Amino acid sequence: MNTLEELRNRLDKIDKELIEKYKERMEISKEVGEIKVEMGREVLDPIREQEKINQVTEGFQDPFLKTGIAELYQQLFTQSRMLQYQVFINRGEDAKQGFQEVDEIAGKGKRVIYQGVQGAYSHQAARDFFGEDAFYTNVTTFKDAFEAVREGRGDYAVLPMENSSAGKVGDVYDLLVKYDLSIVGEIVLPISHTLSGVESSSIESIERVYSHNQAIMQSKEFLNQHPKWELNSMENTALAAKFVSEANDPRYGAICSEEASKLYQLKVLAKEINQVDNNSTRFVVVSKAKIYRKDAEKISVCIELPHETGSLYRILSHVIFNGLNMTKILSRPIKHKTWEYRFFLDFEGNLKDGSVQNALIGIENESRKLKIFGNY
Amino acid sequence: MNTLEELRNRLDKIDKELIEKYKERMEISKEVGEIKVEMGREVLDPIREQEKINQVTEGFQDPFLKTGIAELYQQLFTQSRMLQYQVFINRGEDAKQGFQEVDEIAGKGKRVIYQGVQGAYSHQAARDFFGEDAFYTNVTTFKDAFEAVREGRGDYAVLPMENSSAGKVGDVYDLLVKYDLSIVGEIVLPISHTLSGVESSSIESIERVYSHNQAIMQSKEFLNQHPKWELNSMENTALAAKFVSEANDPRYGAICSEEASKLYQLKVLAKEINQVDNNSTRFVVVSKAKIYRKDAEKISVCIELPHETGSLYRILSHVIFNGLNMTKILSRPIKHKTWEYRFFLDFEGNLKDGSVQNALIGIENESRKLKIFGNY
């Protein structure tokens, strides 16, 4: 029986030799790459790679070793290809897909569309981002917002990335693909609900409360202190405020933002009535122009892949190898294409970073389709 | 200048030697693993692995090679650990987390809770799954459904996995974690909307249409043929049917399921009015009992990971290495833990499969937390 130390000494010796072989292999691969690029051949050659895997696993019976060797070579190939993609970058090619760097996304004089009614949280998010000198208008659905921006009737649209009655997160992603718009900014808005009523109302006069279902649920602890109140769900919080204002009845209360309360001339009866664990919503700003702030630090992409074991894994290897931090991943089957998948990835970085370019060139070459949603 | 063929011949020679070293390394690793398990030591030893990476990358200046070697060794370690986890399996340990195999999930005499109103699609989904011999009741929110099942007031709950006004997809996942319930089944329900009205109504008499926003959007093409109709959004499709029934006005129409139309004694004026690309919704069945059908073919898990480059990648390697097909992936930050993430994975397989056990044992040992949501 070998001791742990003896075994580890043997490993150290093997590792030296293994590294030597690895280094030689990468050097030759680099030469192969240069020849391939010169000949105008694709870097990724799945048939040749499969042949090599068949060759190196030949004669192995143990399924574990067979799989292990295949995995090992998949990784060596990926690394070789990354080295070969460098040739493209050295030639001045990039994977920016036409995105142009700008100093800032300014709101002055711009036409900004938000989805939702006046006084909705998306209205507030839009104003937070673009400020006083922009022009605002609202539409009903995500699709309306996308169409208006595509057709140039607005410069930017602000949309919630959380679920709402007007659409789902996934819908925004699908629309970004369909309308070829880009994300140029995001707003994380602290959500703070008020209970508001008309001028003549007070906490004591309230008998019925109106709001969106989610806002009601978020304010459950507060509402539990008033068990006699009748709760009524409405399409959104701003509509609830409008309804209470028009009803002009001191028995009615609305759960809504402070902004909506003000807009519909209501009186705030209680502030910050929602629980702290539901305290923010994310909104994105989309535009037709492909631009990114020079200090943008998050990249969102959409990748289409065949439904094969390992296809996502290999794509992620480009992100990992380049040391990029992934912050979000989401899969979605592609409609009408049962065995293909669309993945949405967010990772940290700026389009002008070398590591980001390396990763994107690799992903672009090894997926069915790569679309950069934006860098913001 | 070397020709492509010369270079490839040199690669073939290097690969033979590389494979030889790989094989030797795996054999020694296996011995190391056996000693470690005997000594009661953890299979994963991040400090020792980091030392080894420092050792093998020592003396390399090229950042590409340095990263490449580190990646290569990460993979060799992962493979060695997989081999070492086999020792646990050979000892009869498993990663089933107490799940018991059953022949079927029978509905006879069972108390089934669905989220939503009578006649809602979730009601239909529940009936499709459990049949005529079960007892049904409904609750308002996802949370109510989970609480009822946890407290034993119901045997099963049926919940939509799409977004709805009662909650979001992510909420169901969070509730599965919080209430420690399991998924034991799923129903993919074809969604087919009708336009329904009271007995005295006809397509010609309709002036106002009531339904849930999403159903209205899904039926847009049909509604576009009737531009004069006024569209009104309600909380859900079944409530719309109920409202039209109670109003008893031939000018009112509801977009709802055939089931809801029947339940509220309405007359179907038009069938299948929704577009084909929104034609199904997925529901899950949750239970307190940890059971899985012997022919179950999909596994859903929740994995908690630190937010480090590569942590997800290494977890996925267990899925890939064992040849399992991943069908869904979703990330979600953990509330109050800014730098930790929760991932939801679906992959194909049955808990009694060797490949599934191998993958789960690896994932369990290398993540902060693994929870099997279910096999169904």
UniProtKB/TrEMBL annotation, chains A, B:
Pathway noted in the entry: Amino-acid biosynthesis; L-phenylalanine biosynthesis; phenylpyruvate from prephenate: step 1/1; Metabolic intermediate biosynthesis; prephenate biosynthesis; prephenate from chorismate: step 1/1
KW Ion transport (keyword) present: no
Domain ACT, residue spans: 300-376
InterPro entries registered for this protein in UniProt: ACT-like_dom_sf (IPR045865), ACT_dom (IPR002912), Chor_mutase/pphenate_deHydtase (IPR008242), Chorismate_II_sf (IPR036263), CM_dom_sf (IPR036979), CM_II_prokaryot (IPR002701), Preph_deHydtase (IPR001086)
Source organism of the structure: Aequitasia blattaphilus
NCBIfam families referenced in this protein's UniProt entry, alphabetically: PRK11898.1
Domain Chorismate mutase: 1-88
Predominant place of localization: cytoplasm
GO MF annotations in UniProt: prephenate dehydratase activity
Name of the protein in its database record: Bifunctional chorismate mutase/prephenate dehydratase
The gene coding this protein: pheA
